[in-house]
Amino acid sequence: MSRLALAVLVLALTVAGCGIAGTPKVEAPVTVYVSLPMTGPHGGEGRDAVDGVRLALEGAQGKAGSIQVRAVYLDDARGKVWDSVAVGTNARRAVQNSSAAAYIGELDSEPTRASVPITNNAGLVQVSPGAGGVDLTQPAAGYPNTPDRYQPSGSPNFARTVPADDVVVDAAANWASELGATKAAVRSDGSAFQNLAASEFKAAAAEHGIPLGEPTQVAGDAQADVRFVYNPAGGNLSGYGKAARSLRVSAQLDPKLLPDKNFDTAFAQRFHRGPGVYAAYGYEAMGLVLQAIGGAGTDASSFRDNVRNGVFGAQRDGTILGSYSITSDGDTTECAIQRYRIERGASVGVGAFGLVTVPLGAPCPPS
């Protein structure tokens, strides 16, 4: 075959969307589905995460490497905390679209437990900006057969840009120890989440040498003691005795205390409001996905697998959350846990005062 004939053949195959050996090529743009609460009680938090995603995609000029990327934004709440029908519909819509490269969602752990088996079965990587449930990546007491129950394919497909709940609990126990706790306790409403958190807090407190007791007893012990009661429902750490104060820990960093000090300004300029705590994690979820898409190649037969594999083990340096990596289980090594002091603020009525949350430092708990 002459060189001219070979060149014509290569051109014909390329136009047809195939490589020299007839390998199907990815057709751009590829799609990232974003499923987050845009309405309902968590609509504000969800919209912050969505706008973080938008900002990241716009900053990349809608491209990952040489591949054009578009995003489809879906509401998973429909006016509720989360809607099971919407979550299932969103996940199925994503996996049934051959152009889908990744799925960003959900914001909380409960809806994530519903969508992950769907995306996992299709081999579509899912990245959450807020779901911290330990069971999503690790075996967890109170959650039978986890995380296998979320992995019908036999391999993980879920990753997150936020530290897991057990890291937050460890940080609460560590802070109580730093403050000289002479006794501690943890509340639980009997749910699987709070029972697991209570068990983890007790273990972490014991490692710090803090004696444990029942919440009502610890809250009412001698005033000379330094005592703390942890409530995993809101991350509240209540101090009693000599430690009388109200504190809180959160997996999400305060937007004004991010490693990247420019994010707050960039977000405000684009959306004409300051970012909420989930904005940076939505931004980083898209950043992580774009990095994986950019390194996935263009072979359509292996593209989803390559994107998924590009998320697990990914190294992210100099991001708005600092430098971190994603473990083989899907957890982030970013471990900074935000500390807050809750204090009385301005008067909101006769004899009544509002509460002000004051951000403090955000150290990682000891490994």
Looking at this protein, list some descriptive labels.
367 residues; six-stranded mixed β-sheet; Rossmann fold; globular; single chain; 14 strands
Briefly, what is this?
The protein has 367 residues and is of the alpha/beta class. Helices cover 34% and strands 22% of the residues.
How would you portray this structure in words?
With 367 residues, the protein is of the alpha/beta class. It folds into two domains: 9-164 and 255-325, Rossmann fold (3-Layer(aba) Sandwich); 166-250 and 337-359, 3-Layer(aba) Sandwich (Rossmann fold). Helices cover 34% and strands 22% of the residues. The chain has a six-stranded mixed sheet with strand order 2-3-1-4-5-6, sandwiched between helices. A hairpin with a 2-residue loop joins β11 and β12 (322-325). α3 (84-95) packs parallel to α4, α5 packs parallel to α6 and α9 packs across α10 (303-311). 46% of the residues are buried.
Q: Which residues sit in consecutive blocks of at least 5 with pLDDT less than 50?
A: 1-20
Average pLDDT level? 92
Relative helix content: 25-40%
* CATH class call of the largest domain: Alpha Beta
Strand order in the largest sheet: 2-3-1-4-5-6
Bulk shape: globular
In the CATH hierarchy, the architecture of the largest domain is 3-Layer(aba) Sandwich
Largest sheet: 6 strands, mixed
* CATH homologous superfamily placement of the largest domain: Response regulator
DSSP helical segment count: 10
